[in-house]
Write a structure and sequence with these properties.
This protein is mainly β. Helix content is about 5%, strand content about 45%. The strands form eight sheets. Strands 23, 25, 26, 27, 28, 29 and 33 form a seven-stranded mixed β-sheet that branches. Strands 7, 8, 9, 10, 11 and 12 form a six-stranded antiparallel β-sheet that branches. The longest helix has 7 residues, at about 250-255. One of its GO terms (molecular function) is hydrolase activity, hydrolyzing O-glycosyl compounds.
Amino acid sequence: MVWAHSASYDLINWFGLDHALVPSEPFDAISCWSGSATILPGDKPVILYTGIDANYNQVQNLANPKNESDPLLVEWVKYSRNPLMTPPDGVKGDNFRDPTTAWQGPDGTWKVVIGSYSNNQGMAILYQSQDFVHWTMHRDPLYSSSKTEMWECPDFFPVSINSTNGVDTSVENPSVRHVMKASFNSHDYYIVGTYVTEQERFLPDADFTGTSSDLRFDYGKFYASKSFFDGKKNRRILCAWVNESDSMEDDLKKGWSGLQSIPRKIWLDRNGKQLVQWPVEELNSLRDNEVYVYGKQLESGSVFEVSGITASQADIEIMFELPKLEEVEFIDTSLVDPQLICDKQDASVTGKFGPFGLLALATKDLTEQTAIFFRVFRDHKDYKVLMCSDQKRSSLRNELDKTTYGAFIDIDPQREMVSLRTLIDHSIIESFGGKGRSVITTRVYPKLAINDEAHLFAFNNGSLSVRVSRLNAWSMNKAQITAGGNPKLYPRISRGRSKEHDPLFRSVDTRFCSDHFYNKTGPLGVYWVLKLGFLIRFVYLDFESNSLWLDLLLLLYTF
């Protein structure tokens, strides 16, 4: 594996550069794995990454930019005294990886977390340093849980209590809470709590449970995520790997394997219990050909087509009003798994309030369709809104993964409308329910509903009518990518300006090949060719900036 390298002004359009890190030394002889970038005092970016050494042990290494005045940070130099951290006693050599972005305490001490597993507990091992070179392991993990497996790609960051704005990773004060994220069991789980700096302990409001009630960034295909703080726009941005579930043979036929989610802004919900996610505002620049519907009644069994847009490449926002809530069905949410409900009561099964929602990437006759829908229930105390993404009829091809996903959304339908934003990009559908309180990302490969043959519908298969208060939909234009990093092609990049005025690029790491590129791997790595899709999807983001300008650096982490 290597760290490939691309850059962007807007997280949407990208151009490629030379690889940043490749296996070359005893401490990364086998592979250069995941890691994170940190900005040191003086706006100096550094990378901590996991190397697989000649003995197949996972060790943590440091890399510095060869030329800090280069706005693209094209070349990186590995520290001569690597590795800086090796597996401690009690930790196997293959259970020690993925350093986070480091944060600095009030006393100047740098701290970083490494994902691990020991004594039947997944954990975030804490290391401390005064100079970012000599690291000492803290006597206790920052946090550990017996309910989890090996922690991959951990993330630890503060979120504001009173604002949707993001905060720098090193912020520690009463106005923030902290989020601990760990990747395991094919999903990204997180807990919210308090960081007690005096004890170097994270105290969550509740531990992981190992059940469907655990909070996730995304309830579909979404793994190995990484967040970063954008200091220019005061936001925290999240991206993750969206993997495949089909055979290697099928991946070879498609010409790609996996992609990256659309970048999302994340913040703490007003209830203080969970995070909210929403696509970054830059994505709106690709919107075109808006169509809208207001105040449309959806009677039981009704379906209507959203025409006038490119349904294979679209952005849709829809809001539903629900009358007669007193007639909803009862459910005991403490005894049920939302994904199992969505699977057993799919889009074809009539309930009272629901299923209602969207049919994406559908044929005209609905032979193929991917349903993103809601059902509304009532338990002993409250109304419960279930969000589902049903792939059972997504393709006439039989060999594909057609898993159905589901999650409850923490909203009260008496006080707010049930809302959905869905991004459709040929073979990926990202759906944000309840204004981003629950998100489901899926991969689908229709046989017939492709390109101009794809259609979009709103539907209601419940026995009670619902009302579409508002529907806005847009075709999405294609983003641009350019292979190679010739500065002449990008006049906004000036190597002659002073460092204070240069575009401030920072580093990010990623993995796997984009859905929207053909991937040709040769002896020097990966070469990209634009295929389809409105977003140039990058792969596994690791990034931190204290003063982000208009420009971002991406280090693609690829096979």
